[in-house]
Design goal:
The chain is an alpha/beta fold. Helix content is about 40%, strand content about 10%. Helix 5 runs parallel beside helix 7 (about 205-220). The longest helix has 17 residues, at about 205-220. The chain binds pyridoxal-5'-phosphate.
Length: about 220
């Protein structure tokens, strides 16, 4: 399974890589699931969909939804594209497990999909991304790559984890929440013990305020006594 762009890193796998992974999967009789929930939130390059980069889709399943790009988190509407037998099996499975979503929600999703994304969404996210990355880079020792897509910065804060408190990104996240009043996700929940995941999907004022607090808190290095 690949998420493109990735959550949490924001990396965008290029079409050639997706194509190569898909043909490797076909050769080894494996399925490739391409999660494209953040697929249209790509900032500096054209978006990449496995549906248009994979030559042989016989082992390809694409999952997508309205949560991110259409800002419909909580509506719980998503879909999968794949060979007919996979779609039929998924339908059988969901009908006896989660049953179905309410009638209203797919109609709302259809209405959203039948209309162009509101203009300005991408530039707004891009400038939020740039603001957060720029501010995080002000913190000595913090390395923050520019995410190609998605809605998260994923800085490496390993230089702040020096064996004293905070020993882990979980410690650092608790301290940021309780003292700086900013919620971040510790990297260890993704298996990345040296990173924090920080969302930039908030309005400009709140993001600027949060960035001020993060820069101040992280420069201080978290609780050391
Ligand atoms: C890569 C990825 N896929 C899927 C989901 C789930 O989206 P939904 O809100 O439709 O459950 C998320 C949510 O964070 C995500 O980041």
């Amino acid at each position: 399974m690949i998420a493109n762009p990735s959550n949490p890193s924001g990396v965008l796998h290029p079409p050639e890589l997706v194509r190569d992974i898909a043909s490797w999967c076909t050769r080894h009789d494996l399925w490739l699931v391409s999660d494209e929930v953040h697929g249209a939130l790509v900032y500096d390059a054209p978006p990449v969909s496995a549906t248009s980069s994979v030559a042989d889709p016989s082992r390809l399943i694409v999952v997508d939804g309205v949560s991110k790009v259409r800002a419909m988190t909580g509506w719980r509407v998503g879909w999968l594209l794949g060979p007919a037998e996979v779609v039929a099996a998924a339908r059988r499975h969901t009908s006896s497990t989660i049953t179905h979503v309410s009638t209203l929600t797919p109609r709302a999703a259809l209405a959203a999909l039948n209309n162009p994304s509101p203009a300005g969404v991408l530039p707004t996210y891009r400038s939020a991304r740039d603001l957060l990355v720029r501010r995080l880079r002000e913190v000595p020792g913090v390395r923050c790559p520019v995410p190609a897509g998605g809605m998260f910065a994923f800085p490496d804060v390993s230089s702040l984890l020096d064996g004293r408190r905070p020993a882990t990104t979980a410690d650092l996240a608790v301290w940021l929440l309780e003292d700086a009043h900013v919620a971040v996700v510790p990297g260890e929940v993704f298996g990345a013990k040296t990173h924090l995941r920080i969302s930039f999907a908030v309005g400009h004022e709140r993001l600027s305020e949060a960035a001020d607090r993060l820069v101040q808190g992280l420069t201080q290095g978290g609780p050391t006594s």
